[in-house]
Amino acid sequence: AMQFLKQNPALKIIMVTSYGDTTLVKECLNNGVKGYLLKSFGFDELLDAIYEVYKGGQYIDPQIRQELVQIGLGKTSTNEKGNSKNDKNPLTPREYEIALLLADAKTTKEIASLLCRSENTINSHKKNMFSKLNINSAVELVNWLNRQNLMKD
């Protein structure tokens, strides 16, 4: 998405994805994406998103919007670095997000596109994760996530 926006800043992009992580949503919106829909959307919701973005607004999937409201109201528990309070997870929110995408068999290129980042940035996060966890592969990462009960359904 970022490559398209760099080439044509007037482009209005609506992301359609199965990843509803609020950090990812904020990152995409901050980088120029105008809409964010989870793949579970209905046809009417897609039309609403297209219409809202066409009028110059932004559209966020209602489920994600509710999570963002909860965060804004302070109903989620995070530490001073913005990490979830989970002692068994030494990963940053971004690293955890990338770990889940890797566990979902996404390639570095696909992850970079989803997160509006370069492949080099994603590779840097992977290197940091592998170092922190003393592992050498995505398979070991998935095994670690499973052992820590950190895989999302």
Q: Whole-number radius of gyration?
A: 16 Å
Task: Please provide the count of β strands.
Answer: 3
Low-confidence regions:
75-86
Structural class comes to mainly alpha
Number of helices: 8
Sketch the topology as an H/E string, one letter per element. HEHEHEHHHHH
Mean pLDDT: 80
Q: How are strands sequenced across the largest beta sheet?
A: 1-2-3
Tell the overall outline. Answer: globular
The proportion of residues forming helix, as a percent range, comes to 40-55%
How far apart are the termini? Answer: 26 Å
**What does the main sheet amount to?**
3 strands, parallel
**Strand residue percentage:** 5-15%
Throw out a few tags for this protein.
mainly alpha, single chain, 153 residues, 54% helix
Describe this structure in words.
The protein has 153 residues and is mainly α. Helices cover 54% and strands 7% of the residues. The protein has eight helices and three strands. The chain has helices at residues 2-7, 22-30, 43-54, 62-72, 93-103, 108-115, 119-133, 138-147; strands spanning 14-17, 35-38, 59-60. A three-stranded parallel sheet has the order 1-2-3. β2 (35-38), α3 and β3 (59-60) form a beta-alpha-beta unit. 22% of the residues are buried. Residues 75-86 have low confidence and may be disordered.
